[in-house]
Amino acid sequence: MTTGSRGPPASKMRQWPDDGDTRNKGFCAHCGGPEQSRDHNPSKIFLDDPLPDNLPVASSCQACNAGFSDDEEYVACLMECAIAGHVEPARLARASVAKTLSSNQRLRREILAARREEDGTVVWDPNAERLKRIAIKLARGLVDFELNEPQLHAPDGVGIVPLILMSDDARRIFEGEPGGFALWPELGSRAFHRVLLGREDDFVNGWIVVQQDRFRYRVSQEDGMRVRMVLREYLALEVGWL
Ligand SMILES: [Zn+2]
To answer: Which pTM was predicted?
Structure first.
C-alpha cells in the first residue's frame, strides 16, 4: 500500500435524478425512526477536501446520526494507521485523520491496543463490532439512495477484509464482472438511471467512485440486495440482504 501526502484529485459526481417511489422518504434509513437530517454517506471523515459535488445522502434520525460518529472516527483512524503501520498522527497521510487522532487520546489508545508485532510484522486486531456497524450503516444508506429499497432488518451477511488479504479469486468475485447490474433496478431509481443512461466518469464497471482512493461502492440485486464497498482502497466491505 503506498501512501503519500498528496490529496486525492478533485472529482465531481453527477447528480442522478431519483424518480422512484416514496418508500425511502420521510424516515431514518437505519432504524425507521423519524427523518431528522439528511447526511452525507459516507460521512466526511472518510473523504478529503475538496469534497465531490452531489454526494450520496441518507435520511437519519438524530440518535442514529450522533450514534455512528464515534465508530466512523475509529474506522477511519484505524485504516490510516494500518496503512501506515504506526499510530503516530504527525506521520499519517490524511490530515483530517491525523487531527482527529491527535485530539482524541482515548481513540489513540484504543487503536494502539489493536496493534501488535509478530515476528517482525505489524498485525492489527480491530474491533470487529465497530467495523460491522459502519459497514451496515453505509450499506443501508446506499441501498436506500441507489435502489429505493430500505433494508431496516439485520443483513444476512457482512464481510470485511483488507483488499491485500483477499485471494485472487475472491478479489475477482468481489470486483465483479464488467457490465453493471445482473437485474434491472427499480424503474426510476438512481441505479436505473445509471444503467439506462450509460457510464459516466463516476460509474466504472458497475462501481461508483465517490472519491478516488477514498470511497467506491457497487450495489446489485444479483442475489438479494448486495452492497460492496471499498474504503481508502484498503478495506473491502460487503453487506447482503437475501
Ligand atoms: Zn435512526
So the answer is: 0.84
